[in-house]
Design brief:
Largest sheet: 2 strands, antiparallel
Pfam family, one: zf-CGNR
Protein name: CGNR zinc finger domain-containing protein
Distance between the termini: 39 Å
Number of strands: 6
Organism: Streptomyces xanthii
Order of helices and strands: HEEHHHEEHEEH
Bound molecules: zinc ion
Domain Zinc finger CGNR: 140-182
Helix content: 40-55%
Structural class: mainly alpha
Radius of gyration: 18 Å
Strand order of the largest sheet: 1-2
Length: 188
């Protein structure tokens, strides 16, 4: 935790890590990008470096985030995709001018344009969400089994049987709850 603001939960998949910046949507929700600067911080973790962010841009980012969450949830439960969410994702994806570049070490690096780097960063996230929701990547969209979370996550485990968005948070809490329930059943 830095300056009293909630920590990030960082995952390997860009789009679902982004939707994870709001956690416990069905419980006591935790907003992990409460200020424009925290969005800048979050983006820099994923090598999407922007200098600044306005309040309006933060609102747009959150709108994209909730749209990805809604569309990914629908895809995970095989419901029709919500049209409004699809529109927001597509708008964000087409607005950006990010270009993929190759580093000398053979890694992909996104180059954001000078005009509106934040829009470009959001377009990278939107495109990542599209590739997952469209089923282009090896994995399965699923919802976290924690009733207060229900976050959409991308399961890339070999068996495709992951139950929690994050083993260290939701998975652990569930394990502890089961442990305590068993202990209280035992009179000794
Ligand atoms: Zn979860």
């Amino acid at each position: 935790m830095r300056s009293g603001l909630p920590d990030f939960r960082l995952g390997a998949v860009l789009a679902t890590s982004f939707t994870g910046t709001l956690s416990e949507r069905h419980g006591d929700a935790v907003e992990r990008i409460p200020t424009p600067q925290r969005l800048v911080d979050w983006l820099s973790v994923y090598d999407l470096t922007v200098d600044s962010c306005t309040t309006t841009q933060l609102e747009l980012a959150r709108e994209l985030r909730e749209s990805i969450h809604a569309a990914a949830t629908a895809a995970a439960t095989r419901e029709p995709l919500p049209a409004g969410a699809v529109q927001v994702i597509n708008d964000c994806s087409t607005r950006g001018r990010a270009a993929a570049t190759l580093t000398p070490e053979g890694k992909r690096q996104w180059q954001l344009g000078p005009a509106s780097p934040l829009d470009d960063a959001l377009s990278v996230i939107a495109a990542d969400a599209i590739s997952i929701i469209a089923g282009e990547r090896d994995g399965r969209l699923a919802l976290c089994a924690s009733p207060t979370c229900q976050a959409a996550f991308f399961d890339t485990s070999r068996s495709r049987t992951r139950r929690w968005c994050d083993m260290n948070t939701c998975g652990n809490r569930q394990k502890k709850a089961r442990f305590n329930a068993n202990r209280s059943k035992d009179p000794s």
